[in-house]
Amino acid sequence: MNYRIRFLKGELEGKCFSIQKDSLSIGRSSKNDVVLHLEDISRRHVILAMGTEGIAMENLSAKKTSVDGKAIPMGQKSPLGAGQTVVLGTATEFLLEAYEDDEAPQGNAPPDVDMGSTRSMATEDLAGYTAAFEPEMASGFQAGSVAGTRSQLESTTAPPSQLFTSGNSTTSSPTDVPPTRKGKQNSWTGWGKSKGTASDGRADEATGAASASQTVDMQTRMGTPEEIEDIRRGYLRNLRVRNALFALLVMAFIYVVSMVYYLFHKSPEKNLGWPLKDGVISRSKPFDLKIPRFEDKIFISYPVTSQTAIDKEKSCLSIRTGIGRYGQVPFFITVEHDSNPQLLKEERRASLERWMQRKAQGSNAWNFEVPIPVPKHFPVRFWANHNGVPYFAVSYTRQRDGLAMFGHVWYFRCEDTEIAVILELPASERWRGEGFLKESMMRFTLDTVTGHWEGMAELDILPVKEELREAEKLLDSASPSAWSKVEYMLTSALCKIDRDSESQEYRQALKLLRKLRKDQEIWFNSQRLSFYRAKSLEDKAEQGQIRRICQGVFSSREDRRHNNVWTNNWD
Q: With 430 labelled, which of 363, 473, 537, 547 sits at a CA distance of 20 to 30 A?
């Protein structure tokens, strides 16, 4: 006795499956013999096992399973007899049928399917169907008759009911009686017998072709809504994964580009400053300008880069370097100096005018932003402390090797020597580098500051000895109100003395000048303390009185303290 199940409801409704092995498993997993796709079916729902007494069903699911309406608990085995119905879940129902080996199915019921041999059956039957027509097609072509070949082809495309006609004999259509498989054989049992003289081999091969057609029809069924939904969800999941990977790649690319930009991009500076080396300002040690009679007294500190170069001539010093964080902006420093006795008989403003007139001539004319003649009250600036070293600052533009340049000139004098410190950078960098041109790069020794003097237009008519004697007497009186006269007399005497001889009178005048500057500094510091005390007490009257006294003592614009008092800068 053989058994099969016929599905009465569900996605496999009308289909039969033979229990050819020892067991037949049903569930959602693709490893089962019968695969269902409904959500109320477990991955491995039930197993139908062949025994000596018939079929036994083992329930492996916690979901609904019943036999003839009686629920079967999970893990329980229940015997099944032919004619009993089994319900799986809520929408799947099948019937257990029994049949003999030589018994054909009744009516137009679809054939039962051996799931283990379906693919091999289809291959064998299609091969048999092809072999059935090879002799006739070969004979037609060998005879060379086009009509015979056409008739053979027309016979092969005839309707299924006439496909197996030979002479006056006709083979039954494969759809007349559904065939029944026996084991794993390739012929149908219970098939209608052939009428007339048709060969048994031709009928068997046609039967195999019909079997192949039925097998293909079963394998290409319409997908259920659940299967279509699973395909749609899988497509959307893969699409999300691809989009996520693409987004990650884009983010990684942006991150790499950002890091490269951050590490290698040099952002422009708003204001140019000193170059940096390992995060520290890179500037030179004070460099001696080596001006005659001022060796080891006047120095300059300049920016240092890998391209810094110094060119020293007799009366000119040139330094080529760079400024900016990376030293990327060209920067030029030129120091010019010249000794001229005429400087002892004129003011600094007059000598600056003469120097500017020389530079404004020629092919590379300098365009100064200060008019010539220089205004009488042109502002004076100072280097160093104490009385300070006064100088003029003048801006200009010019052409240098075909490049437009912008620069500042620091013009000052020491005794009978004029010195011009010229700072230049490209005119295109003026808006960023103009502030750097005002940086203080000059350095002076204390003796140079306290002993600083320069020529003046109006000299005292007294002889040098009388001037020194009168200045010493006034200095000994320790009267601050006489200090302006003392400084005038000493400067007048120094302008008249021959500096080449380094005479005793020159040394005496210079000594008295340094003593005057020392007394002035001591007195000014005491007044500064008094001013701070009055400021802490918010005594404005006292502050005003101290300022007026200091303005009377330091009445010369050539003294740094005069400018400090007038600007109320006591630091």
A: 363
Order of strands across the sheet that contains 85-88: 70-71, 65-67, 85-88, 92-99, 2-9, 16-18, 112-113
* Amino acid (one-letter) located at 517: R
Counting Cα atoms < 13 Å in the Cβ hemisphere of 21 gives 14
Angle between helices 464-476 and 483-496 (to 10 degrees): 150
**Which residue reads 């630091």 in tokens?**
571
List, in sequence order, every beta strand (DSSP E) within 142-239: 165-166, 169-170
Contact predicate 527/546, CB 8 Å: yes
Question: What residues have CB less than 8 Å from 446, skipping those under 6 apart?
Answer: 386
CB burial readout 498-527, b (16+ within 10 A) else e: eeeeeeebbebbbebbbbbbeebeebbeeb
pLDDT at 313 (0 to 100)? 85
Inter-helix orientation angle 118-143/146-156, to 10°? 160
Task: List the beta bridge partners of residue 311.
Answer: 318
CB 480 within 8 A of CB 522: no
Q: What is the DSSP string of 127-138?
A: HHHHHHHHHHHH
HEC states along 292-351?
CCCCCCEEECCECCCCCEEEECCCEEEEEEEECCCCCEEEEEEEEEEECHHHHHCCHHHH
Report the pLDDT value the prediction gives residue 185, as an integer from 0 to 100: 39
pLDDT at 211: 47
The confidence score (pLDDT) of residue 382 equals: 94
* Cβ atoms of residues 275 and 304 within 8 Å: yes
Q: What is the per-residue pLDDT for 269?
A: 82
| Opening angle at CA 88, ends 87 and 94, nearest 5 | 50
Confirm if 327 and 321 have CB atoms less than 8 A apart.
yes
Instruction: Give the model's pLDDT for residue 292.
Output: 87
Q: How far is CA 74 from CA 142, 345, 494, in A?
A: 68, 125, 125
Burial level of 93, CB count in 10 A (0-12/13-18/19+)?
middle
476 backbone dihedrals φ, ψ, rounded to 5° = -70, -25
The pLDDT assigned to 502 comes to 65
Burial class (CB in 10 A: 0-12, 13-18, 19+), 306: exposed
DSSP state letter for 436: G
Q: Are 24 and 57 contacting, i.e. CB atoms less than 8 angstroms apart?
A: no
- The pTM of the full predicted model, rounded to 2 decimals, is 0.57
- Taking 50 as the pLDDT cut, the residues of the chain under it are 104-111, 113-127, 129-203, 205-218
Output the pLDDT for position 499.
67
Q: Which pair of tokens denotes residue 540?
A: 């404005």
| CA of residue 528 relative to chain centroid, distance | 57
Taking the C-alpha atoms of residue 492 and residue 486, their distance in angstroms, rounded to an integer, is 10
499: which 2 tokens? Answer: 């500096």
Answer whether 103's CB lies under 8 Å from 112's CB.
no
d(CA 341, CA 348): 13
